[in-house]
Amino acid sequence: TTGHWEGARALARDVLGAMEPKPIHRLADEVVNRVAAGEVIHRPASALKEILENSLDAGATSIVVTVKDGGNKLLQVTDNGCGIREADLPILCERHTTSKLSKFEDLSAMSTFGFRGEALASISFVANLTVTTMTRGATHALKASYCDGALDGGGARPCAGNPGTTITVENLFYNVPTRCKALKSPGEEFAKVLDVVQRYAASRTDVAFTCRKHGEARPSLHCAVTPHRIDRMRAMYGSQVARTLTPMTLSNSAKADAPGDDDGAAEFTVDALVSTAGYHSRRTTFILLINHRLVECAPLRRACEAVYSAILPKAEKPFAYLSLELPPHTLDVNVHPTKREVAFLRQDEVVERVQRALERRLVEANGSRTFAVGAVAGTEVDEAFGEDGGSRRSARQSLLPGASRPGATRGRVERDDDDDGDDDDGTAGDGSVAPLASGRNKRSRPLTAREKAGGEHRMVRTDASLAAGSLDQFFHANANANAERARLDEARREARARRYAARGCAGVDDEEAELRGYDVGDGGDGGAGSPETSPELPDGETTELTSVRELWSEIAANAHVALQRVLRGLTLVGCADERRGLWLLQHGTKLFMVRVNRLARDLFYQRVVARFGRHPCRALAEPAPVAALVRMALDDEEVPEGAEKEKAEEAKEKIANAAAALVAEKAEMLREYFGVDVDRRARALVGLPVLCEGHEPNLARLPEFCLSLAHEVNWEEEKPCFDTCARSIASFYSGHDDEEEEEENVVPP
């Protein structure tokens, strides 16, 4: 071991003795500028942040952002600000040129977003930058292009335009291939761009913001000017989020700190909107503005998350918007190249005060919980006017047997049985419900706390035996629409027959037409095999195949009797969580929360097995090629760029053709057993089964359905084949995927 160390030392001495000091030289301006640009511009969202701040500093009241390919190909920002003077255009994109800072002392009272003069210069070194601007009172606009911080040789050119400035950034990182390859997919980059716009829109309610993808008429985000921040939040994040937000204000009006004075308490004000326990999300949304600057403060964020961790369920994250105002001389904005972070005096004290205020506000807000439900069908609604002149609505609810309406019998005294003829079970002689005793009587028992409160636990919303109390009311059968659909189907069948004849085929015979569920047209005698004259077979007995009988027996053996009783007499209350597919159902006096997509999947699976071989078929408007559908499903998967992408595209084409061939090979079985009509020659889907009258599947899921038929169905064995095929059809009709199933099943109170 000693010999090895001695050899290493000798080698080190030789190397160091032979090393000559390298000369120090000045970097070229191009290298310096590109290195500096990499510190400021990381991705399209960071470029947008700098441009948006310039627009806001220019006094814009309307800002429109247009994005193509996530901002990599095109990022355009149009505002109606004050514009740029013609004399300033030649030096607009030079480094450290700005109109917001004259001397270093100005930083202590900086009120604008920008001050470095590096944003546009950095963008011009890594992208193609074009500026179109027009000042107030000018006769025309000016258009200028920049490259590597310099104005193009042609200079600024007159053009038509509107007052304000339009900055167009194209081909971002075209000369920095490493940074360009490191960008995420266009969808992910656009999400980051949209997040930046939303954060500034949350702060500046006096400015209208619009963000759209290039080529799309409908914007992805549009926020009009509004005096109330909660309305801006509702426009960006939806009503469901806005309902869970509560305002929080905090002000510490201690004596203002003088420059150089380190004594005294911190002076600050906080204007915030924070979520309550009713907010549900898996991602934290934390928007922090300090003196109207969009910044990050890790200690303040951790303090807020610590407060929410005590009240939110595991894995749930909060939503918080905080606007912190500090005296300018206590804030240092020059601590980060992108101005993403700032430093301010007495940070620990400010964070602690905000944390305590947030705790108090959440305790106050969670004293009561509000739960919104949809209107209940069959409920009588009264509208009255309160003392304040405002209208209030109350729902009349039907009663369970033996229950009385709360407050209906106050002041009444129960009479003796001999006088009124009431029975001992609490009902009158005519069968009506007798009022509950509220007066003093030797036979009356003390009222419970719930009965004193009104006895709402003995009430239900509607009578479950009525059609209005079940899901059937949502299946609207329009006779005229059904007749029109039948005429259209007949016309399509005739057109398809003419196409078959044009190909040299006499069309489909009567047997095949019957298998497809079409009318045979045998003169009206009905025939023994006609669906109109054949007796209706019970569920599970439509075939003699043993494997299908076994599947139905398994369904019957696993049936839950209590759940069947609930579903037969349920009352639909409303949607509890649309994102997670949770709906509320009432049965009797109990409230149930169900995953409606999973319930529909099981229902359709049972219908496929129960009516095996007897499913009517409804023709599609146009034949859908199976290969094209499978290719659409495969295109949803991301593939790498370059040579690997070409190989992936070839593999997709082979998979799509193989899947179409397999489905066409099984066309006869699919048509006969499941009502899935496939044109074997054209390898196209031409009809789908009718599992529930009045229900139509989402045809946007046809690509996934065809892919599942080819890759998720076990075509080797009979029983697994029927089982997996039925499950694929059920998933298609219910719009439910197994991978979408969430692990947690507990909903916080």
What would you note in describing this structure?
The protein has 749 residues and is α+β, with helices and mostly antiparallel strands. It is 35% helix and 18% strand. It has 22 helices and 24 strands. Strands 1, 2, 3, 4, 5, 6, 7, 8 and 9 form a 9-stranded mixed beta sheet that branches. A hairpin with a 2-residue loop joins strand 12 and strand 13. The longest helix has 24 residues, at 479-502. It starts with a helix and ends in a 15-residue tail after the last helix. The model is unreliable at 256-261, 374-443, 456-475, 503-534 and 739-749 (pLDDT under 50).
pLDDT < 50 runs, ≥5 residues: 256-261, 374-443, 456-475, 503-534, 739-749
Distance between the termini: 68 Å
Report the helical percentage. 25-40%
Mean pLDDT: 75
**Rg (CA only):** 36 Å
Q: How many helices?
A: 22
The percent range for strand residues is 15-25%
Structural class: alpha+beta
How would you sum up the global shape? globular
β-strand number: 24
Main sheet overview: 9 strands, mixed
